[in-house]
Amino acid sequence: MDKADIVIVGTGHGAAQAAIALRQQGHEDSILMLGRDSVPPYERPPLSKEYLAGDKPFERIMIRPEQFWADKGITLQLGSAVTEVDPVAHEVVLSNGDRIGYRKLIWAGGGDPRRLSCPGASLKGVFAVRDKRDADAMMEALENGARRAVIIGGGYIGLEAAAVLRKLGCEVTLLEALPRVLARVAGEELSTFYQDEHRRQGVDLRLEAMVESIEGDDGNVTGVRLASGEVIPCEMVVVGIGIVPAVAPLIAAGAAGSNGVDVDVYCRTSLNDIFAIGDCAAHANDFANQAVIRLESVQNANDMANTVARAIMGDRQPYHALPWFWSNQYDLKLQTAGLNLDYDQTVLRGDPATRKFTVAYLKEGKPIAFDCVNNTKDYVQGRKLIEAGADNVDLDALANPEIPLKELL
């Protein structure tokens, strides 16, 4: 295909939802999805959880059965990387030199794993967890006898990988450069709880640990050297230190953006007829006091996709969606509602020792986010509390887990 009415770059959650939503809303012209992956669209979060653990085969994490796309007249062109965008000619250029024209372009390119910059970072046995190939390579290493793993990064990806690898019987050392895990996304109460839990599960968790190099022999990983000089022996290293937004072709074409690509309330970039959604789209968020942020979540990708589909179909509605996230580790289900940016107070609901509790985040007396561990009721009702803009809530009632959050509305 050398042109399509709608070209979608990417095959992740946002890209898939954009194509689906366009068809649901009556778009009848051609839709082409260009993906770097070699397989049809699939869910990314299970890669560091159920898929890596072997609990779900690939077929169960596919966003839709493969035949679905053909049935809906959505063309998948896999193994295709976009290297250039020509906004004047309304064309994208692929790595093989092919040019594909578009009327509207939806950029859902996501991001690439941030790589280590230390010596040894490219040794065999150093993994990221971003796509199916990454997870498959880790599974192959485990099948070939890898039993000692070092995880670099104490964010959700690192913690989830640690939980899975412990379940699979590996010795796991987790290194976090900051004084606590989840430092950028959670308060101290949640960080402390997860640190204690991982240590209880046998993870050698080390804080303020600085990596000097990755050691190897004959091209294979053999250990991780710390700044202290200690070498931690291992057969595999998992790097979870964030992503770099995959927007270089857009920025080179003149799109505005410094951390990702900037979009307006309809997810339009500064380039004519080009939208951007998902992890790479920087937007002024209604639930972050209009701070310009990127959100790396399935929720954001899907909701932005729906916003773009409506805009293309002539039903322009500004993006407005409460952010939510989740993480599964061991038998713990964490559900987060809202964004805790610039919070000035936390309130603990329940006792973490019971493995069911909630951390509420407030700013000037107003609840702005909830971290709910094994506490779906608080999550559901907390979302409604944030969306309602509840203000000056009774802190004693908020701290009492026997009082439902809905009673604070």
Describe the structure.
α1 packs parallel to α8. With about 400 residues, the chain is of the alpha/beta class. β19 (about 280-285) and β20 form a beta hairpin. It is about 25% helix and about 30% strand. The strands form 6 sheets. Strands 1, 2, 3, 4, 5, 6 and 18 form a 7-stranded mixed beta sheet that branches.
User: What is the share of helical residues?
Assistant: 10-25%
Can you give the mean pLDDT? 97
Radius of gyration: 22 Å
Overall 3D geometry? globular
The parts where pLDDT drops under 50 for at least 5 residues are: none
Number of helices: 10
Oligomer: single chain
Q: Termini, distance in Å?
A: 54 Å
Comma- or semicolon-separated keywords:
seven-stranded mixed sheet, five-stranded parallel sheet, alpha/beta, 25 strands, 23% helix, 409 residues, 30% strand
What would you say about this model in short?
By secondary structure, the protein is α/β, with parallel strands linked by helices. It contains 10 helices and 25 strands.
Describe how the helices and strands are arranged:
Elements: E1 3-9, H1 13-24, E2 31-35, H2 50-53, H3 66-71, E3 74-78, E4 82-86, E5 91-94, E6 99-107, E7 111-113, E8 126-127, H4 132-143, E9 148-152, H5 156-167, E10 171-176, H6 188-200, E11 204-207, E12 211-217, E13 220-226, E14 231-233, E15 236-239, E16 243-245, H7 248-252, E17 261-262, E18 274-276, E19 281-284, E20 292-293, H8 298-312, E21 324-329, E22 332-338, E23 345-349, E24 357-363, E25 366-373, H9 376-387, H10 395-399
Parallel strand pairs: 1-2, 1-6, 2-3, 6-18, 8-15, 9-10, 9-15, 10-11, 17-19
Antiparallel strand pairs: 4-5, 5-6, 7-16, 12-13, 13-14, 19-20, 21-22, 22-25, 23-24, 24-25
Helix pairs in contact: 1-8
